[in-house]
Amino acid sequence: MMIFLIFIFGLAIGSFLNVLIVRLPQPEISKYRNIVGGHSRCPKCRKRIFWFENIPVLSFFILKGRCRNCGSKISWQYPLVELLTGFLFLVSFLMYGNSLVYLIYVLFLVGLLTAIAFIDLNNLLIPDSLILVGFIVSFVFIFFASHFSPTISNFYGLLFFGGILLFLFLMTKGRGIGLGDVKMAGWLGFAFGLENSISLFYLTFFIGFIVAIILLVSKKAGLKSKVPLGSIMALASVLFLLSGFNLLDFINSELILRLWLD
């Protein structure tokens, strides 16, 4: 029963994430009114979408993927984000359900990373507001989890992951990596700590390399095409959280840490 409820809760959160994904990149919305304020409307005919048309996943298939008023197509992103969030929440519960506080934190990270992944994928943009919220919540969690004192590992993680991307940003003069990527890497480095950030860094660039090869081979991107690195970092972070992957289990972790700390 609990597993079913967690999945349904994930679907509902996924519906909320869709609101953020669609509205946050729109400057006129984020600037002049509440992001989640107002009624949902069809982007084509601007007619109001009622609650019974907004039931996660179910409404999409009942409406056959089209607006009830004008018949325009509804993006598959909506049920995809909802189902993905439900699935990720379910896996998070199965892995971390024995600790309520840690489970809540993991669910927060999964939800936030999902929103960032789709926003960056669609717009090549990582909203500062989401990174700031991530920093604040991570700091509060670490503050209490480590008995009111974030460990030095968290700050080293920020310097390591954020520092590498800042260096790449400066080297490429912002052509390949944006400041949003640097800020996100700094937050993730702080949230995961130094040792985990090393694994996360390599996992991110391994996934990025695979994605780049696929795009180049399929001719969907060129050497100068921009890659949504924020989406790749989000994917790597979720995989890291839910798989327990640790690169340092396979290599000499003491050597790497000694090189960094010395």
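Next protein, fold it too.
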Amino acid sequence: MKYSTFPLCSLMALALLTLLACNQHVGNPSTLKPRIEKFHQAIRWKDFPGAAKLLQPEKRALFLNARLQANDVNDLSITDYELEQAELSADGKTAVCTSRLSWFRLPQISEQSALVKSYFVWENKNWYLERQENGPFEELAAP
């Protein structure tokens, strides 16, 4: 008796597709670090509209308005950043990232440095910054 591998391959493909469809609600760990780096690069080079796109949609206008009010295009300089740690939650839907961030905001000329905790959430197949503890963006702190 000769067995066909077609039904077995079809069944395996269907199982894989089902698994992938279910996992769309779980964050992709391989895309987290590039997302954090993209945010850091955007703020370092004062690309605040680009940085805002990495925030949860409901936080974008607040972030951009705060940058305008503080005149951050002229007055804020991110001098250094380094991602130190990133941890995914057990359910894969949130992540906490710790970075060392250094900056100064005119008229102050002394550099500030802090460990900044950034909280990311997985939404619409992307990581979005939800809030931050410490750092130069007070409007991103938890209420």
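About the second fold: Helices lie at 6-22, 32-44, 48-52, 57-69, 72-75.
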